[in-house]
Amino acid sequence: MEALRRVFEKGEPQISDLLFGPVLRRNIAVVDVPVWRNGKVAYDLAASLPLGIFTDIITRQRPQPDWTIAVFDRKGTVIARSRDNEQFVGRSASPSLYAGLINRYEGALDTTTFDGTVVLTGFTHAALSGWTAAVGIPKSSLTIELWRSIAVIAASGIICFAFGTLFAVRLATQLARSRADRELLIEELNHRVKNTLATVQGLVASTLRSAVSITHAKEVMEARIVALGRAHDVLTHEHWESADLRELVLGIIQPYRTEHTSRINVGGPDLQLKPRAAVALAMILNELMTNAGKYGALSEPDGRVQLKWSKVDDSPSRTLQMVWMEMGGPLVQSPIRRGFGSTLIERSITRELGGTFEKNFDPAGLICTMMLPLNNLAKNT
Q: Distance between CA 40 and CA 37 in Å, rounded?
């Protein structure tokens, strides 16, 4: 009767909690919908839904066998469940999850299932019904995948380090004419390898800390390491003395140009970069391109990206201005949460390059303006 009263008073559909149907003698959920006539609610159209509907919806998501997906009503009672459904329908959520369901709109927390499995559970409420959907993944599964990824990355780093050191020793032996020359070459290589490994280690740790899933962490981590590799390719071409800015930019955008040839426009004067500045700029441009491809202008058929740079000689100190502009993409809004990508960009500009960064969330397209001192950026300044 309470749902019926709200239908006539508010003129809005109503969805019940879990009920026991006295006719068919089974658990059901009831949906009440107002029927309008002459601007007023004249009738209440009600339908009882068998819970098998919600079980089928969960099954169609193809969850992993050890995952637990469940739907709860407003009181925290199980409506449907991916595992042992018949046993748990009608029971309240586990004690470790119940308080979160009742007191929070959405979130993620460590819980323990009815069968004693420790899981990482994410949940959210539906606005209309007030029901909750929750997904629990065993923490043991997450830990295995995490350590497997770390082991692969660590093994790759060790192999690269070993081959690099072997190559350096052999090269130094062949070319150096004295013991002092050999030691100098080895120390220089060790310095560069350690810097590279420290950069990779920082990227791995920060990416894993901010990623929403193992799959997401792998994708982001691979993209950032590939961007680092492209910067190293340009530096290797110049014997690690400098890097051409235009060549660096083209190397970062090349994977996107194969698909969006005429939609990415870059241009600016020639400039030779310092090695450290080249690595920092490669990471910055990779984050901007990745964001544009996934969420920004390049995610829409008519979207375009423009990157222009120019020297500003009339500033207090000679500066390079780089302007990133997106057009024709989805409507731009200020992000609710600050991701590691934004932190990486701002930290690279302010700490590594000593510059400033301004981001304008124009509804028509994102605009980023970077002001970078040439004495920190350019070779021979």
A: 5
Do 2-50 and 62-139 come out as alike in CATH topology? yes
pLDDT confidence bin for 306, thresholds 50/70/90: very high
CATH of domain 62-139: 3.30.450.20
Q: Which residues pair with 273 in a beta bridge?
A: 243, 378
Q: Does domain 2-50 have CATH number 3.30.450.20?
A: yes
Find the mean pLDDT for residues 227-241. Answer: 57
Angle between helices 245-257 and 275-294 (to 10 degrees): 20
Question: Is residue 112 exposed (0-12), middle (13-18) or buried (19+ Cβ within 10 Å)?
Answer: middle
What is residue 300's predicted lDDT score, i.e. its pLDDT?
85
Q: What is the pLDDT of residue 249?
A: 85
Q: Name the CATH superfamily housing domain 262-381.
A: Histidine kinase-like ATPase, C-terminal domain (3.30.565.10)
Amino acid at 205: A
Contacts of 309 (CB under 8 A, 6+ apart): 245, 267, 268, 269, 271, 320, 321, 322, 323
Check if the beta carbon of residue 91 is closer than 8 Å to that of residue 75: no
Average pLDDT over residues 97-106: 86
Q: With bands split at pLDDT 50, 70 and 90, how would you rate the model's confidence at 160? A: low
CB-facing half-sphere around the CA of 71: CA atoms within 13 A: 18
* pLDDT averaged over every residue in the chain: 78
Query: What does the domain layout of the chain look like in residue ranges?
Result: 2-50, 62-139, 262-381
Residue, of 183 and 285, whose pLDDT is higher: 285
Residues 174 and 313: their CA atoms lie apart, in Å, by 46
Q: What is the pTM of this model?
A: 0.44
Please check the confidence at residue 20 and state whether its pLDDT lies above 70.
yes
Write the burial class of residue 128 (CB in 10 Å: 0-12 exposed, 13-18 middle, 19+ buried). exposed
